[in-house]
Amino acid sequence: MQILDGKALSKKIEERITQEVKDLKSTCGCTPGLAVVLVGQDQASATYVNMKKKACDKVGFYSITHDMPETISQEAIEKTIIMMNNDSNIDGILIQLPLPKHIDTTKLLELVAPEKDVDGFHPYNVGRLVTNLDGFVPCTPLGVMELLREYKIDVKGKNCVVVGASNIVGKPMASLLLNADATVEICHIFTDDLKKHTLNADVVLVGVGIINLITADMVKDDVIIIDIGVSRTKEGKLVGDVDFLNVSKKSSYITPSPGGVGPMTIAMLLSNTLKAAKNNAAKLSKQSES
Prior knowledge:
Blueprint: E1 2-3, H1 6-28, E2 33-39, H2 43-59, E3 62-68, H3 74-85, E4 92-95, H4 105-111, H5 123-130, H6 139-150, E5 159-163, H7 170-179, E6 183-187, H8 194-198, E7 203-206, E8 223-227, E9 231-232, E10 238-239, H9 244-247, E11 251-254, H10 261-289
Parallel strand pairs: 1-11, 2-3, 2-4, 5-6, 5-7, 7-8, 8-11
Antiparallel strand pairs: 9-10
Helix pairs in contact: 1-10, 2-10, 6-7, 6-10
């Protein structure tokens, strides 16, 4: 059994991005800029945003957080997004989810300029992912693919079961696996007999936030396990969706949780923002030439 170490790989990626940011600054004077919209007082969201800000500072990005009260209106958030769309110093826009119930999340995500949609949630980028065209891909599934690539795990022809069908993780994860020529099944809350599906899988990828959902009797020997879920036990310990202690004994590769996919999510946010900055710099260069 080998651990898929997302923490170590994310550090490598951050080092590469730091150098690329220096190169970008020296060639065109550009500094990648990320803007985050944070609404309300959700502690988990605030923690994630703080981690993202620290990561931006570490690699040399410019970052700003629009911290808004829980009671803010839809119109006020929309005005902020439009302002950021028109700000040439901002390359990436991230709306921290979940949003309060009175806010139309879909409308806000669609309002973000697709070329600044570093979360990969805009329908334009979703469509490009499904059709295997270049665009911005949601950070968590993109991080999973980077982990697989780092450890030279080729999913071509493998039976991959994705547990969870969210727009943020499950659906884009399935699309990326299909694009890599894997055979893909998606299981979700209405799937009858989850074990029947996971038992035949070469790769199980799970991200639903249910502690110990995947147990040793549900997987075959030498399975590859990608645990995307994060939950907190009553004792306050962070754990994933997989019974790590027992499932790891049967697996050939497995991600820990925490320390597996989590760090890769932030690394991919940085990577997407750098990509957006490079695209923006190239666009500005063409405009100045003409």
